[in-house]
Each structure stands twice: as structure tokens, then as C-alpha cells.
Amino acid sequence: MKKIVIIGATGYVGSAILKEALGRGHQVKVIVRNPSKLILTHPNLKVVGGDVTDTDFLSRELAKSDAVISAFNPGWSNPNIYDETLEGYGSIICAVRNAGVHRFLMVGGAGSLQVAPGRLLMDEPDVPEKLLPGIRSLAKVYTDMLLPEKSFDWVFLSPAANMFPGQRTGKFRLGKDELVADEKGDSNISVEDFAVAMIDELEQEKHHQERFTLGY
């Protein structure tokens, strides 16, 4: 059992990660903007309300945890998603460093994955224009904030191109910097299996200061 903090546990991906972590017996503290949104109760769950951009608050709450998992996202419909993603992760990464947490796992984006040599998914013509600010902000967190970071052990887990509500199968393929796709070229993963991969990594610690990805 690990003592972990999950940031953004009321969101689409964060809620799946929370469920998986509790299901495996971990002790979880969640930090959410609005605690009333979290209706789940569990003896191993503690809920703390707060703003991730308050670095001092966050540093105190992350202290003495074995790992931090962040599913922070300002919201895909938020017109300020690019700036708010960078501001939020700037604070989160600083707080992880301040708190002396050894292990940081982040819900990354698929946009910075390679679809061919020299070609990134986010540069493909069929990517919806309205999603690009959020996609590019997550890519920038990876390249500009995490890649240079050497003071703690971090992981950036990129999903497949399409992540959807589905089944928890526990059966998927892992990759590193290239999009994982099937023989038809489709790249898919359920949010439940994404959560499995994230908690697998929490427990097994197979990746260190790097990105990895998954798909069927």
C-alpha cells in the first residue's frame, strides 16, 4: 500500500485513477477545487479542497506522500486552457519539488506522440482546431517543464489518440514516444485501462524521468 495524492480526481481521467487506486488498497488524499463534486466515500480516502496554483498550500499537502498523481486539467472548453495548464503545472511541479516527493506521475496528452518520423500527432490535419490549445499546453509541460527536471522521479503517461469510457480489461500494449495503433491504424484505450496502466506504474516503477504511452 502506498500513500498517494491525486490532483484532479473529480475529472474524467482523475476519477478513473482514483477508483483504481482505492480498489488496489492504496491510501489516497485527493486535492480538488470543489470537494462537493466528489460524492465517493471510502475509508482510505481523504478529500482536501484547494487551488493548485497556491504553491505553498500544495507543498504542505503533498508532504510525506509516497507519490503524486496529477490529472489536473482546467477544462477542454476553457478558453484559457493553454495559459491555465502551464500555470497549474508550474505550481504543481514546484510543490512536488518543495515537498520532497520522490515520485510524480502525470496524465499526459497524446498530441506530442510521433505518428511517423518527424511528425507529431498534434500537427496532423484532422486534429480538431478547438482542442489544439489544450493539446499544445500539455506538450509544453512535457518538453519545457518535465524533460529538464532532475530533482525528482517523474513519469508522463500519454494515452492513445482516442480515450473513451469502456471496460477494464488490463490488456493493452505499451510504447514510448510513438503512438500505439492497431493494424488498421486506429489508436484507442478505455479510460479504465488507462487508469490500470497508471496504477501499475505507481506500484511497479518501471519508467523513470520519461514518457510512455499505451493502446490496444
Automatic annotation (TrEMBL):
Xref: InterPro entries: NAD(P)-bd_dom, NAD(P)-bd_dom_sf, Polyketide_Oxido-like
Domain NAD(P)-binding: 8-203
Any Pfam family matching the protein: NAD_binding_10
Name recorded for this polypeptide: NAD(P)-binding domain-containing protein
Species in which this protein is naturally found: Parabacteroides faecis
